Amino acid sequence: MLTAIHGDITTLAVDVIVNAANASLLGGGGVDGAIHRAAGLGLLQECRLLGGCRPGEAKLTQGYNLPARFIIHTVGPVWKGGHGGEPQLLAACYQQSLALAAAHGFTSIAFPAISTEIYGYPKAEAAHLAVRACTEFLAQPTSLTQVLFCCYSAEDLVLYQQCLAEGAP
Ligand code: AR6
Fold this sequence. Notes:
- By secondary structure, the protein is α/β, with parallel strands linked by helices.
- It has helices spanning 30-39, 41-48, 86-103, 123-138, 154-166, and strands at 2-6, 16-21, 58-62, 70-75, 108-111, 146-151.
- The chain has one domain (2-166): Leucine Aminopeptidase, subunit E, domain 1, CATH 3.40.220.
- The longest helix is centred in the middle third of the chain and has 18 residues, at 86-103.
- It is globular and about 40 Å long.
- The two termini are 15 Å apart.
């Protein structure tokens, strides 16, 4: 089931939350900074062992001080006009994160709106792509029963609710 909610992803008691990280995996601003602050230094120590992450890939860590048990770190594309493979890379972020969660038998996962602030991806296009990628994934047999789109702003919540109401693909 796909659901959009308004809130702070660091407060969600799901199996796994997704972090919109950068290639170093060593923290940053936005949701990445919030997750590192809330999880604590144990997260940074584990991330140092991961050897970074390429755009479109996903890596798993423990959740440390978060209510979520685990964190999947994925690196979205930086928006450069849309002709540099950005949609494929953003879709890969959702697909790889879902596949990693399912490979561990998780049932619940929460996503932020990957790439849509510091990395500049247009919000409406990104929301449609996120809903489509998750809908397609859930159409196959999987342990995942709950996919949350955690919207940090009221505007994002309206956008995701519209995308979900329209249905995808
Ligand atoms: N809970 C849920 N969503 C949040 C939270 C939160 N606590 N805080 C911010 N958002 P961004 P990006 C939303 O900029 O565009 C970092 O420095 C935010 O409103 O965090 O993928 C990384 O290290 C927006 O909708 O990620 C990278 O360098 C969404 O999260 C770079 O930013 C993503 O915004 C990644 O940029």
